[in-house]
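Project outcomes to date are best conveyed with an example. Our students and postdoctoral researchers have been running inverse folding experiments weekly, and each run begins with a structure described purely in C-alpha cells. The record below, which covers 467 residues, was selected by the lab manager from last quarter's runs and is presented without edits.
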C-alpha cells in the first residue's frame, strides 16, 4: 500500500507506476520506441501533429504492481476520456497497454472505416513487437495471451469474417483477425487483396460487397490457406532500422500524497469509494482530491454532494480547472432537469467553463461542456460549435464527441465532412448499438440532398458519463 511511486513524462506518454525508477524508465523507453514503430510503419509524422488546433494528446498510462480493483479477468483498460485519454494495467498487463495504444493511435491518425476484426487483428499484430539490445524491432511474434482462443475457441470461415457476418464471435475478431493481418504482412497477394478490400469499405461498400470484389476470387483456397496458420512455424521480421528514444524522459519520485491522487482512477465503484473518502480525510487541503470526489459523485448522480466537493476544491484554488468544470456540469444537469431554457444555471455553468478554459485552453472537457451549456440545440452560437470542434481535435478518440460534431456538421450542410467523421463509428471497437445506430443515421442523412431539412433529431444524451 505504501510502495514508491514514480511519474515519467515523454513526448507521447505520461506514466505513473508503483515500481522502481529503473522499471518505470525502461517502460517509458519501450512505449516511446513502440510509438516510433507505429509511426514508421503507418507513415505518420514522427513529430506530434500540430495542424491548426489539432494536437496529439499524451496518453496517461498507469502501471500497478497489484491487480486492478475488482479482480476478475481484466487485463487492463483504455478510456478515451474527455479529461484526457488514459490506460491502466497491472505489471502483467504489458501487452494489453500496447494493444490499446494501437487503437488510440489509429483513432487519432487514421480514423477510417476499418472493420472490427481488422482493428483488433492490427492491434494484436503490433502489440507483440519486441526490441533487441540494439533497438531493432521484431515484428510478427505470436500473441501468447490468445493461445487458448486459437486452440479451443470456435473457428469461423474467413469468408464469414470478411463478409462481416454477425454470427462471428468476439474471439474470432481477435484471433482470426490477427491471423489474417499477419498473413497479409508476410504474403504479398493477401496484402494486396486486403488493401483493396479496405479501400472499398471506406468508399461505403459493405463487408459482403468488398469481399465479393476481392477475396471471393480465392474460393476455397482462402480457408485452406489460413486454417492452420498460427499453429505452426510462422514468419517474423527484424527491422534493419533501430528505434532509439531521442526525446527526454523526465522522471521523478512522487510523494505519498501525489501517489494517492494518481491512484484515483476508475475501478470497481465500492473500492473507489473507500479510496476516495480515505484520500479526502488524509489530504483535506488538496484541491484535486476534492475535484476527484466531485467527479465520482457526478458519475453516481449525487449532485448535491458533487457541488459540495467542487466548492471545497474551489475554496482552496478558485481557478482549479476540473473543479470549475465539475461544478458547472452539476449545474447543467440541474438546469436540464428544470426543463426551462431560461434557467439561470445555464449561464452560471457557462461562466465556470469559461473560467476553466482561461486557466487551461487545452482542457477538452471544458470546451465540450461550454458547447452543451446552450440549451437550444437549434440556436447554438458559432463559438459553441467551434468549442465542440476544438474539443474533438484534442481527443478524436472519444466516440460521443465525434458523433456530436458529425451531427452539427450535418446540420450545417457540411455533408461529406459529417459522413467521413461518422464512418469509422460503424466499426468502432467496443461501440454500443446506440453509437453505431447514430453513426449510420448520420451517414444515411449525409447522402440525401435535402439532409439539412429532414435530418432526424436523434442527438445523444447531453450529459454522457465519460467514465
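After processing, the design step wrote out the following sequence:
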Amino acid at each position: 500500500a505504501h510502495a514508491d511511486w514514480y511519474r515519467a513524462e515523454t513526448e507521447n506518454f505520461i506514466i505513473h507506476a508503483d515500481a522502481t525508477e529503473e522499471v518505470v524508465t525502461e517502460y517509458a523507453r519501450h512505449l516511446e520506441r513502440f510509438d516510433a514503430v507505429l509511426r514508421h510503419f503507418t507513415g505518420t509524422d514522427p513529430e506530434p501533429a500540430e495542424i491548426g488546433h489539432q494536437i496529439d494528446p499524451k496518453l496517461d498510462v498507469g502501471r500497478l504492481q497489484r491487480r486492478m480493483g475488482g479482480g476478475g479477468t481484466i487485463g487492463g483498460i483504455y478510456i478515451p476520456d474527455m479529461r484526457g485519454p488514459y490506460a491502466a494495467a497491472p505489471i502483467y498487463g504489458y501487452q494489453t497497454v500496447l494493444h490499446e495504444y494501437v487503437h488510440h493511435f489509429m483513432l487519432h491518425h487514421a480514423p477510417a472505416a476499418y472493420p472490427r476484426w481488422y482493428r483488433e487483428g492490427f492491434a494484436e499484430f503490433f502489440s507483440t513487437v519486441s526490441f533487441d539490445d540494439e533497438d531493432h524491432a521484431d515484428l510478427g511474434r505470436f500473441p501468447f495471451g490468445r493461445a487458448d482462443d486459437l486452440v479451443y475457441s470456435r473457428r469461423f470461415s474467413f469468408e464469414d469474417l470478411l463478409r462481416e457476418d454477425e454470427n462471428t464471435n468476439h474471439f474470432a475478431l481477435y484471433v482470426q483477425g490477427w491471423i489474417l493481418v499477419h498473413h497479409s504482412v508476410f504474403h504479398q497477394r493477401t496484402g494486396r487483396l486486403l488493401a483493396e478490400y479496405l479501400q472499398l469499405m471506406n468508399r461505403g461498400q459493405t463487408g459482403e460487397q468488398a469481399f465479393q470484389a476481392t477475396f471471393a476470387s480465392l474460393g476455397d483456397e482462402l480457408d485452406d490457406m489460413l486454417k492452420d496458420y498460427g499453429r505452426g512455424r510462422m514468419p517474423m521480421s527484424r527491422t534493419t532500422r533501430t528505434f532509439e528514444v531521442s526525446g527526454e524522459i523526465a522522471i521523478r519520485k512522487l510523494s505519498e500524497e501525489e501517489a494517492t491522487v494518481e491512484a484515483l482512477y476508475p475501478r470497481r465503484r465500492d473500492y473507489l469509494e473507500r479510496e476516495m473518502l480515505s484520500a479526502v480525510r488524509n489530504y483535506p487541503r488538496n484541491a484535486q482530491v476534492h475535484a476527484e470526489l466531485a467527479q465520482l459523485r457526478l458519475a453516481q448522480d449525487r449532485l448535491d454532494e458533487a457541488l459540495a466537493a467542487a466548492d471545497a476544491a474551489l475554496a482552496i484554488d478558485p481557478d482549479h480547472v476540473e473543479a470549475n468544470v465539475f461544478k458547472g456540469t452539476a449545474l447543467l444537469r440541474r438546469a436540464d432537469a428544470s426543463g426551462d431554457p431560461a434557467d439561470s444555471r445555464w449561464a452560471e455553468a457557462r461562466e465556470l467553463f469559461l473560467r476553466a478554459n482561461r486557466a487551461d485552453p487545452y482542457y477538452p472537457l471544458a470546451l465540450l461542456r461550454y458547447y452543451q451549456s446552450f440549451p437550444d440545440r437549434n440556436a447554438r452560437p458559432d463559438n459553441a460549435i467551434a468549442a465542440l470542434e476544438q474539443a474533438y481535435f484534442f481527443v478524436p478518440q472519444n466516440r460521443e464527441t465525434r458523433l456530436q460534431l458529425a451531427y452539427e456538421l450535418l446540420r450545417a450542410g457540411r455533408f461529406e465532412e459529417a459522413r467521413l467523421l461518422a464512418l469509422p463509428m460503424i466499426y468502432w471497437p467496443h461501440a454500443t448499438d446506440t453509437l453505431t445506430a447514430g453513426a449510420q443515421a448520420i451517414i444515411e442523412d449525409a447522402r440525401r440532398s435535402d439532409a439539412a431539412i429532414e435530418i432526424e433529431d436523434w442527438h445523444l444524451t447531453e450529459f454522457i458519463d465519460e467514465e
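Residues 49-54, 66-72, 452-467 have pLDDT under 50 and may be disordered. The CA atoms of residues 82 and 395 lie 7 Å apart. The training component of this project remains on track.
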